[in-house]
């Protein structure tokens, strides 16, 4: 359907002069556009629904309301200035734009103008403030996505891939704050400090202060300070445990504290956050337990300590650390 013909149909429909066939034609065009959701597949379900509701359905409702509220004239109608019909024309123009340029283009415009994605490269951390002034420290090789503007009526939501530490501001209106992970877990708070790790299908939340509710599609769990919760998306299990919080969140302060952590677990974490690769020629070293601290940006110092403590040799070849 050409844009010129589309505009003509909308004008006739709003004026109450469209034939039944023209009405069907226009509504079919609209419904067909809404059914094409290929452009939404990369988004979480909540964002898909927000886009459908906010950007699409309200346009049609806005125009429909104009027609519904129109009353039959009992006397020659007064000429109404264009500015008096601003709401109608904005809605009509939005519909013309949507159907003329296609939903994928509108989605691109909506997403880029309304949402902000912040990513970190491997081995780098970044500190940001959210629209409500809550603090987020993003670990290496991670990203957060959120709406550029928040108002007091909406839920504060952040989508996380990787690892981040949150210090959430409490608001006078007691707004919920929700962190969404890629495996469908929701971490809901009012005002608190907590760490979320979400990589390779593993999710772990550590609560430092306040109260957090962790939810998956089937169950909820309310955490207490000093607790960690591990989540298995495959088994739909939420497993709590008491932990030492400081070593787990120490990365946010540019240092890494290790308390009885296996060498294998240390390097598995660093492979995710720093992008390093490790090859074990000496398999027994994997199960050795390490205690100590190193600067967050000094991987070489960590390898030096491991060489001295466990009498192994570490070489770097083609970007791979080889332990033997």
Automatic annotation (TrEMBL):
Entry keyword annotation includes Membrane: yes
InterPro entries for the chain: FecR, FecR_C, Ferrdict_sens_TM
TM region positions: 88-107
Domain of life where this protein originates: Bacteria
Residue ranges constituting the FecR protein domain according to the UniProt record: 117-213
Pfam family, one: FecR
Protein FecR C-terminal domain residues: 258-319
Keywords, sorted A to Z: Membrane, Transmembrane, Transmembrane helix
GO molecular function: sigma factor antagonist activity
Protein name per UniProt: FecR family protein
